[in-house]
Amino acid sequence: MSSDFLEQLAMLEVREPPPEFDRALHERVNRALLIQHLLSLAVGSIPWSVLHFLRGVVGVALFSITGRFDDELAKKNSDTQ
């Protein structure tokens, strides 16, 4: 018998996985991916979207009340020139 570890492993006979192995693996992976996606959506995407939506709503409300458009980007550009 060879003393090389890899050759010893090559001689071993490996059983076939059970027929339900692939299905169970896919179900576990899909469940983990779904949880990760929903967590990312709840923690990152939804708060970011709500923040930017509210900035627009507040801007429209301020414009309706004051009649002036407060453009922060225009202020920054005029300060640098």
Protein traits:
81 residues
- The overall average pLDDT, rounded, is 86
Shape: elongated
Estimate the strand proportion. under 5%
Strand elements, count: 0
Order of helices and strands: HHH
How is the biggest beta sheet arranged?
Answer: none
Distance between the termini: 82 Å
Overall SS class:
mainly alpha
CA radius of gyration = 30 Å
Number of helices: 3
Low-confidence stretches: none
Helical proportion, percent range:
over 70%
Report on this model:
- With 81 residues, this protein is mostly helical.
- The protein has a domain at 39-81.
- It has three helices and no strands.
- The protein has helices at residues 5-11, 21-66, 72-80.
- The radius of gyration is 30 Å and the shape is elongated.
- The termini are far apart.
- 0% of the residues are buried.
Brief summary of the model shown:
The protein has 81 residues and is mostly helical.
Provide the fold topology.
Blueprint: H1 5-11, H2 21-66, H3 72-80
